[in-house]
Amino acid sequence: MSYDPAVLEATTRVLAEAAPGADQTGDFPWTGIHAVHESGLLESTVAARYGGRGATLSDAAHILAALGRGDPSVALISAMTIFNHLGQTTKNHWPDDLYRRLLTEARHKPLLLNAARVEPELGSPARGGLPATIARRTATGWAITGRKRFVTGAHGLTHFLVWAHTDEVPARVGTFVVPNGGPGIQVVENWKSLGMRATGSHDVEYTEVEIPAENVLELVDPSVAQQDNRAHAAMNLALTAIYLGAAEAAQAAFIRFAHERVPANLGHPIARTERFVTLSGEIDLLIGGARQIIFAALETSQGNAEPLIRARLIAGRQLRDAVQIAVRGIGNPGLNADIGLERHFRDIQSVLVHAPQEDTSISILGRAAFDRWNRHEADHARQPPALSVRRTA
């Protein structure tokens, strides 16, 4: 374990205290982000070769589950940076000088990185296609022009990782590291989601935003630039741990309400009624089962995409159902903001909207099942016919 559980728990409490206010205003959740930064959790996955603790993806999922219990919006913003550090650990795709400079900056303030990939016309890259955003060569580097959608944490990010194509002939596609706050960057405040309000996943427009030549990652031919949804299956499952945390917070709110609610005609807490015992069991079955599914798959899949995709879909559906049961079981008070269930119910709706979305993930599983059957039939056809054996009396 590369993190201190006591520090993680204390950080989660700070997030939980600030979460209702951040949800209400939709402002960038600086209180929670500063808590995650000061705890060192934002840099938990920095590789040992850079002086970091080298947390694994499974470690990151445990961290995100805890942060999700406090405030899933803060957890999601944090996850983008945590995953980027993990990507450098495994792929080493950042220019070394640039990456070390960013780590130096992280000693003094939260370093917040996030990919800006989705576009109004293209939609999610998980469904295929190439970016309209263009990177134009300049005398000193690149100038970026385009519009991106659903940029989580837009106002608070220190750097956007902008997916764009170059103006070269032939063109290449890559990720351009764009510092936030410079000329030509406009955050379009259009995030009006049901839940996860404090993520501030607004649109961002870039107009001739100039960056140095070295601020680019993995420039490749467009033919190999398509998003590989299978390759990201483990990280997508780890992201689901955020919503596991949100569901566990909903479960805690349900249990607290059941123990504090004492109807006059009953004379004791409703937690002692068989109905609420049964409801509690149903909720625990779904949420506890989702926790087992997520972490067992992360620890045993060995990079095989299908078990990870199945785990994400099953766990996500169970978490949604569990919170719905909690709200429905409590009734009218469950829809009131006072006990917190209403916010958790809204947040949990986002569990399977992250790319690749549910239908894309199911299509991957469906094709894989057809491919297995076709391979089996082909292997069977190549086998020599069985020899008949004549019996003698």
Walk me through what this model shows.
The chain has helices spanning 5-25, 30-38, 57-70, 72-91, 96-105, 233-260, 274-300, 305-330, 341-348, 358-382; strands at 113-116, 134-137, 141-151, 159-166, 173-179, 185-188, 202-212, 216-220. The protein starts with a helix and ends in an 11-residue tail after the last helix. The protein folds into 3 domains: 5-111, Orthogonal Bundle (Butyryl-Coa Dehydrogenase, subunit A, domain 1), CATH 1.10.540.10; 114-224, Beta Barrel (Butyryl-CoA Dehydrogenase, subunit A, domain 2), CATH 2.40.110.10; 233-377, Butyryl-CoA Dehydrogenase, subunit A, domain 3, CATH 1.20.140.10. Strands 1, 2, 3, 4, 5, 6, 7 and 8 form an 8-stranded mixed sheet that branches. The chain is α+β, with helices and mostly antiparallel strands. The model has no long low-confidence stretch (mean pLDDT 94). The protein is built from 10 helices and 8 strands.
CATH superfamily of the largest domain: Butyryl-CoA Dehydrogenase, subunit A, domain 3
Q: Summarize the helix and strand pattern as letters.
A: HHHHHEEEEEEEEHHHHH
The pLDDT mean sits at 94
**Shape label:** globular
Please report the total strand number as a whole number: 8
Task: State the oligomer.
Answer: single chain
**In the CATH hierarchy, what is the class of the largest domain?**
Mainly Alpha
Q: Structural class of the secondary elements?
A: alpha+beta
